[in-house]
Write a structure and sequence with these properties.
27% of the residues lie in helices and 28% in strands. Strands 3, 5, 6, 9, 10, 17 and 18 form a 7-stranded mixed β-sheet that branches. Strands 13-12-11-14-15-16 form a 6-stranded parallel β-sheet, with helices on both faces. A 3-stranded antiparallel β-sheet has the order 2-1-4, with no helix packed on it. The structure holds zinc ion (2 copies). The site of one zinc ion has 5 residues, from loops.
């Protein structure tokens, strides 16, 4: 089968690999579409295990079932998210927080991902894709969408409350649609001068837009910080309502969170929480909800052989919506 593979310190290149063997409880999936996530650009991520087939927003059709796999059937259309597997036995797995499992394995990180014609996965980690989505539309929902949804869930925001979003990229632009569907008021904060992001936020229903550091007309009941920098965390805490929560949706921060003066930023039961990728239930809850709301991500399609070019365009900020590999 053809794959686009990343070799240490090189570009993503086409390669030939044998079709993977199906193990017990696994399914073999013919990949139809694989989203390109910003995470795929990160050096530390790529060097985690090279050579590597990237891709953790994968949509495909079940081609074959391994021994003991009984829940899915041949021909089913399923999606795969960032969580590839977990131990299934530890206290985190048992309570549905398998994203916190010590043995968490990432798709396209610890295991080969979706920049390929085929991939295998344990059937419990593949989720049905609602019919209304095309293969390429469904792909970005599986990372940006599901993670944005988890962040929203962890924020504890309720209908009618005020939610702040810091940074307005792939995840936030889906999260705002869910928040508006729940009748939340949404205030969006971007970097100074990011008018295209602010305009998109307004188009998607933002009740107020401004720059990080601005003070909106009302305090935030909860906030989600999608940025890779430290300052928005303190800014969100500054304008957070008493008893509110700030959720950080970032794998890494490139600079530290500034010092938090207790009385000003923490007092009055303010909470701070991070989001660590996703659990299966997030995908199972979010995909039907996205179909119900009618969230349709804007996508730009590429062929498998154009993976490197698509990654370069993403790095330069030249992709409209989400970049997705369409794999014949
Ligand atoms: Zn991702
Ligand atoms: Zn576990």
């Amino acid at each position: 089968m053809r794959v686009a593979m990343y070799y240490s310190n090189q570009d993503v290149r086409l390669a030939e690999m044998p079709v993977p063997q199906i193990g017990p409880g696994e399914v073999l999936m013919r990949v139809e579409a694989s989203g390109i996530c910003g995470t795929d650009l990160l050096e530390w991520y790529r060097l985690h295990k090279a050579p590597l087939v990237l891709g953790h927003e994968v949509v495909g059709t079940i081609e074959a079932l391994g021994p003991g796999a009984t829940k899915l059937k041949k021909g089913d259309r399923v999606g795969i998210a960032w969580i590839y597997s977990s131990c299934g036995k530890c206290k985190f797995c048992l309570r549905g927080d398998e994203n916190l499992c010590d043995q968490f394995q990432g798709t396209g990180l610890d295991a080969n991902g979706g920049y390929a014609q085929y991939m295998t996965i344990t059937e419990d980690f593949a989720y049905p894709i609602p019919e209304i989505f095309s293969d390429t539309q469904a792909a970005p929902l599986l990372c940006a969408g599901v993670i944005g949804y988890r962040a929203l869930r962890l924020s504890g925001i309720k209908s009618g409350q005020i939610l702040g979003l810091y940074g307005f990229g792939a995840s936030a632009h889906i999260a705002i649609q869910v928040a508006k569907h729940r009748d939340c008021k949404v205030f969006v904060f971007t970097r100074e001068g990011q008018t295209h992001h602010q305009n998109l936020a307004k188009k998607l229903g933002a009740d107020w837009v401004g720059a990080t550091g601005d003070t909106p007309p009302e305090k935030l009941d909860a906030a989600i910080d999608f940025t890779p920098v430290g300052e928005p965390v303190r800014e969100a805490l500054r304008i957070l309502e008493r008893g509110g929560r700030v959720v950080i949706n970032a794998i890494r921060k490139i600079n530290p969170i500034p010092e938090l003066e207790y009385a000003k930023y923490v007092w009055h039961e303010k909470e701070l929480k991070s989001v660590a990728n996703v659990a299966r239930q997030d995908a199972m809850d979010f995909l039907p909800l996205a179909a119900e709301i009618g969230i349709t991500p804007e996508v730009q399609e590429f062929e498998l052989g154009q993976a490197n070019q698509a990654l370069a365009l993403l790095k330069q900020g030249k992709i409209q919506g989400a970049a997705v590999l369409k794999i014949p």
